[in-house]
Design a protein that fits this description.
With about 240 residues, the chain is an alpha/beta fold. It is built from seven helices and seven strands.
Length: about 240
């Protein structure tokens, strides 16, 4: 029953906020649009906690208004909204599957998102480079999911080169982020499993490491912490039976 009520509430809120954000996307300023998006994400976090029974615990130091790159594990449809609820205004790299939702497509573009396709290539030549260029001088974090898509619990996908391109070009520190949210909201599953979920911000990876060293360090950091959080979350489920 909790899942049914949450789903109805979540998607109802999503539709209402989408209409408001779409209207705001025609304004010449992005701040009202971003504020509305953050409002939806925080509302979703509230509902996830109090309706679905999935409180989100934040560990580590969330980078707010900092020129860093957040490279995060991606297990759930809730990952993006929860990250924005926690960190506020972010410059996010998003798969072009969102283009099938016309209103959302315009909203995320006007908010400053970068579209990449599911194979890791940009939707138009130079799109990623243009987004990187726009990021120079910004103090908001860039959010990217290095695997390029949703991973199942316990799964590690190939980390794609886009994260290194942003890291190398901008010369910014990377904040790895692990999660076990997929245990509670698995990928796009409508069923939600009660229990706490964790988003953990890990030790920064400094700028200017060689590519192979950077990619190995990033993957090891994210995957090791994610496996530990998954084990913690599964132990909670067993103890709750």
């Amino acid at each position: 029953m909790r899942s049914l009520v949450f789903n109805a509430l979540f998607w109802g809120l999503a539709a209402a906020f989408a209409l408001i954000c779409y209207a705001l996307s025609w304004l010449p300023w992005r701040k009202p649009l971003v504020a509305c998006m953050i409002g939806f994400c925080r509302s979703a976090r509230f509902c996830l906690n109090w309706v679905a029974g999935v409180p989100i615990e934040v560990r580590g130091n969330p980078p707010t208004n900092q020129p860093v790159i957040i490279a995060a594990k991606h297990q759930s449809y809730a990952d993006g909204p929860m990250m924005m609820a926690i960190t506020g205004d972010i410059n996010f790299v998003i798969g072009n599957g969102i283009e099938k939702f016309p209103l959302i497509n315009r909203i995320v573009r006007q908010a400053g998102a970068t579209m990449v396709n599911t194979q890791g290539n940009t939707t138009a030549p130079g799109a990623l480079e243009a987004a990187i260029e726009r990021s120079h001088g910004e103090n908001r974090p860039i959010l990217i999911y290095p695997e390029g898509g949703l991973a199942a619990i316990g799964e590690t996908k190939r980390y794609r080169k886009g994260v290194h391109k942003i890291y190398e070009t901008l010369g910014r520190d990377v904040i790895p982020a692990a999660t076990n949210l997929g245990l509670r909201w698995n990928q796009d599953d409508w069923h939600k499993t009660q229990g706490p979920a964790v988003i953990e911000f890990l030790d920064p990876i400094p700028a200017d490491l060689p590519r192979d060293e950077f990619m190995q360090r990033l993957q090891t950091s994210v995957e090791t912490a994610t496996r530990a959080l998954e084990a913690e979350g599964m132990a909670f489920q067993e103890a709750s039976k």
